[in-house]
Write a structure and sequence with these properties.
Rossmann fold; Uridine Diphospho-n-acetylenolpyruvylglucosamine Reductase, domain 3; 3 domains; 4-stranded antiparallel sheet; elongated; tRNA(Ile)-lysidine synthase activity; TilS/TtcA_N
Length: 442
Amino acid sequence: MGQSMIDLPSRLLLNLAAWRNARNWRVAFSGGLDSTVLLHLLAHLAKTESLPTLSAIHIHHGLQAAADAWPEHCQAVCDALSIPLQVERVKVQPGASLERAARDARYAVFGSVNQSNDVLLTGQHRDDQAETLLFRLLRGAGVRGLSAMPAQRPLGQGTLVRPLLDVTRAELEAYAAAHQLQWIEDPSNEDRQLSRNYLRHQIVPLLTGRWPQAQANMARSAAHLREAQGLLDELAQIDLAHAKASTDFDWLGVPSLELAPLAALSGARQRNALSHWLEPLTRLPDTDHWSGWADLCDAANDASPVWRLADGELHRSAGRLWWLSGDWLRAPVIGGEWHTPTSPLRLSGNGVVVFSGQMPCGPLRIAYRQGGELMHLADRGHRDLKRLLNERAVPAFVRGRLPLLFRGEELLAVANLPGLDGNAQDGWKLHWQPTDEDQGLR
């Protein structure tokens, strides 16, 4: 018996089997057809099945006058089903695509409420999957984009699950009619200026008129592409494993990769591995912007090239790639006198410094490299700081923010660099915790 022959409640339970032990099931409830059917199905299953705690969440975007009545409608539906409803109002940032901005605002709320072992359930179905594939194909998406919508993915501290992806819109309409459900018709769904609506109302009916199985086949293609993306991800992990050798600078807490193992790969494998690595850190560049990667690789050995991306920068230094974002991209503000060296000194935009052992006598101050500094080493006399940093292969982006300890004009220590970070004879060291912000995970 094919899965489409199994009744809708049984199929839904089958698709949710892996999450039966979750703490909460929360339905993203717009009040439209898909989420109304999903909520109704779950409310009725909960009467005979032991399910996680069920609730609903409605996001009010306030983008059109008609929407003001929707929270009330959703509340009435939830009251009738005895399901608690949370209504969240969001402000949508105006931008190039209002649809995208509204979606971003919606998912930001979903992510913030989704705690550990929570599942957020959304009502997208097979027709949506086919439209997504078609829409992305027309925008020139790669394998990842053409995988369309995954049936599950991490969201917030929990999981987002789409349990109706193998159900057609027609099946949902039939269920709604059989149970006399009332739902909201969003006026914007009729606006043919919106690309998705144009595809839904104008293009897909033409395709299914000629090829009745078009949507099922497109959804199947999306599943094949998702499998292909899985293989690409596995390949990326293999390639990245070779580039993740540790360094003397792991204490920086900056994500980094060794360049040579990556540069030895074919161009396509380089881009695949790097996309996989960058994905949690930044919005990825489109095809045209990958020339920045070639420039980074091809720059002369003594250069310090930078590739600017949406949410940070990729720097090449000391034979490695370094992902910098947040405070790392801002010049640190010089701190000045360190009046109570017994307690840690917080540096503006540059973490914290602290002493261990017997402190040198003052007056002490923390400053940053300006150029021309000399340091006296017990066994080597006065040495140029630039040369000392070169000897230790200190990455270029760190040099201007390494805390330097001065007594008057005398350079006493360079934080964290073995041999330069204190005085072995007097038994003290200068420690630097570079930044206490989460490095870049968006």
